[in-house]
């Protein structure tokens, strides 16, 4: 079967930055290390007042099309994944296509367009849809443009406020991809949950502490389901494990859970047995509470072992470098984690061709998906072409007063007019309804 996967990606960050230890922590009266060490974040990306999910998505897609020499006729499908949509009828992909049609000769009248919604996992679901469409042979030689774009803003004062972020990632899905091939196997963990939701409201209602537990529970189910389809995952067969990253501290917990799961009944568990004992098994305990307590103690010890810490440093830490500087991009977050890992390998001069990534996607509400990806031999050129470092360095550093203004400006319920902090540089800008997405 022909390989199907991601041929190219582009990342577009919101043009503003909120410094968490320097600006946010003093305003909140908190220790800066709560953010840098506890949550694992240095900064959040914010959209300037002329940016929104359409402009960020169109800018990422335009950069990708230019770099890959793509014309509208090459693209048979445009899906936008977002949980920041402003329209309950017309999909954001139609707005993005409208922007792109302004700058290309052709149009996208032939392209199937849609909007995918399932919190943050919708980006991966759109990838899956593109994979299925191409694998089924319905694409007539064309590829799919998948855009994950969000302004992940929380109400001021909400515990999630420190994890905000804004940005887009565009991905071109095609046969014989240059970047990664997607596995046919997937595993899911899915349940009706109400820990994070946005029922026709601008900012989410979140039970933050519970959302962490739900993420872990669904991820464990997805891992088990993946193994039932693809066979046991062995940690030494995986090069990086990019997870959905609402903040790096969440991935610290997910990584430990995944490691504990994949070392069961392996030589790694045998090697560690002398140091921390074997993993507790439920059948050895009278009650679930006793089992859970024993498991908690085992995990606490596991996390301190050199073996785990080395695994974490090699396989997980490199996935977090961009996220630390931008916060949660919701639907784009796991795709940013993949890009971070590949970028770090490129910087280290490693050759990853043929190696395996284990991708852990997650969306509140709630669903986790595990799949694997095989790195393709064009990956270095693709990752080298990213200008994410330059974009991050060029962001305008908000003062607290600026931050409050720009946060109000993006609150659809408030009618505020705020200055632009940065000057658009050959990019699509939101220029009012009916004229949205003009290029300046
Ligand atoms: P919080 O109350 O601000 O923080 O909320 P905390 O008190 O729990 O502290 C966070 C961590 O910092 C803790 O570490 C503290 O110990 C540590 P942990 O015990 O968890 O390992 N800490 C410090 N460390 C060093 N020095 C210090 C210090 N102080 C504290 N001085 C919470 C945290 C996650 C609840 C909040 O940020 C929140 O509500 N976030 C939004 C929801 C969220 O991101 N949930 C994640 C799972 S759900 C998900 O990923 C889906 C999502 O992306 C949406 C979607 O799918 O659409 C959100």
TrEMBL record:
Domain (Hydroxymethylglutaryl-coenzyme A synthase C-terminal): give its ranges: 195-412
Matching entries from SUPFAM superfamilies are given as:
Thiolase-like
Could you state one GO biological process linked to this protein?
farnesyl diphosphate biosynthetic process, mevalonate pathway
Q: Which GO molecular function entries does the Swiss-Prot or TrEMBL record give?
A: hydroxymethylglutaryl-CoA synthase activity
Q: Which UniProt keywords apply?
A: Acyltransferase, Isoprene biosynthesis, Transferase
Presence of the UniProt keyword Transmembrane helix in the record: no
The entry assigns this protein to a family as follows:
Belongs to the thiolase-like superfamily. HMG-CoA synthase family.
* Cited PANTHER family: 3-HYDROXY-3-METHYLGLUTARYL COENZYME A SYNTHASE, HYDROXYMETHYLGLUTARYL-COA SYNTHASE
Q: What is this protein called?
A: Hydroxymethylglutaryl-CoA synthase
The organism named in the record is: Natrialba aegyptia DSM 13077
């Amino acid at each position: 079967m022909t390989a199907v996967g991601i041929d190219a990606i582009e990342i577009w960050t919101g043009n503003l930055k909120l410094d968490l230890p320097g600006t946010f922590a003093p305003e909140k009266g908190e220790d800066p290390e709560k953010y840098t060490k506890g949550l694992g974040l240095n900064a959040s990306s914010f959209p300037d007042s002329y940016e929104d999910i359409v402009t960020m998505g169109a800018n990422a897609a335009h950069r990708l099309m230019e770099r890959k020499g793509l014309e509208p006729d090459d693209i048979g499908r445009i899906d936008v994944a977002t949980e920041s949509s402003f329209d309950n009828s017309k999909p954001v992909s139609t707005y993005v296509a409208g922007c792109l049609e302004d700058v290309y000769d052709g149009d996208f009248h032939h392209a199937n367009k849609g909007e995918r919604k399932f919190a943050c996992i919708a980006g991966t679901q759109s990838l899956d849809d593109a994979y299925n469409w191409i694998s089924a042979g319905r694409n007539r030689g064309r590829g799919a443009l998948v855009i994950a774009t969000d302004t992940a803003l929380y109400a001021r004062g909400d515990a999630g406020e420190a994890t905000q972020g804004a940005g887009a990632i565009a991905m071109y899905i095609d046969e014989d991809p240059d970047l990664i091939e997607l596995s046919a196997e997937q595993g899911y963990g899915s349940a009706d949950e109400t820990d994070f939701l946005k029922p026709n409201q601008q900012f989410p209602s979140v039970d933050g502490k519970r959302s962490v537990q739900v993420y872990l529970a669904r991820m464990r189910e997805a891992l088990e389901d993946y193994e039932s389809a693809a066979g046991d995952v062995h940690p030494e067969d995986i090069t990086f494990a990019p997870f959905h990253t609402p903040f790096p501290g969440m991935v610290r917990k997910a990584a430990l859970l995944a490691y504990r799961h994949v070392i069961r009944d392996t030589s790694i568990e045998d090697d560690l047995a002398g140091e921390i004992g074997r993993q507790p098994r439920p059948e050895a305990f009278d009650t679930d509470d006793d089992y859970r307590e024993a498991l908690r103690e085992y995990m606490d010890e596991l996390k301190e072992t050199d073996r785990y810490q080395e695994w974490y440093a090699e396989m997980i830490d490199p996935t977090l470098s961009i996220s630390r500087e931008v916060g949660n991009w919701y639907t784009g977050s796991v795709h940013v984690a993949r890009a971070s890992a590949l970028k770090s390998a490129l910087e280290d001069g490693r050759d990853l061709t043929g190696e395996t990534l284990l991708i852990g996607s997650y969306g509140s509400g709630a669903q986790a998906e595990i799949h694997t990806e095989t790195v393709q031999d064009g990956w270095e050129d693709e990752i080298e072409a990213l200008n994410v470092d330059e974009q991050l360095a060029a962001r305008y550093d908000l003062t607290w007063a600026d931050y409050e203004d720009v946060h109000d400006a993006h609150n659809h319920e408030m009618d505020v007019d705020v200055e632009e902090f940065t000057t658009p540089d050959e990019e699509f800008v939101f220029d009012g309804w009916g004229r949205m997405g003009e290029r300046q």
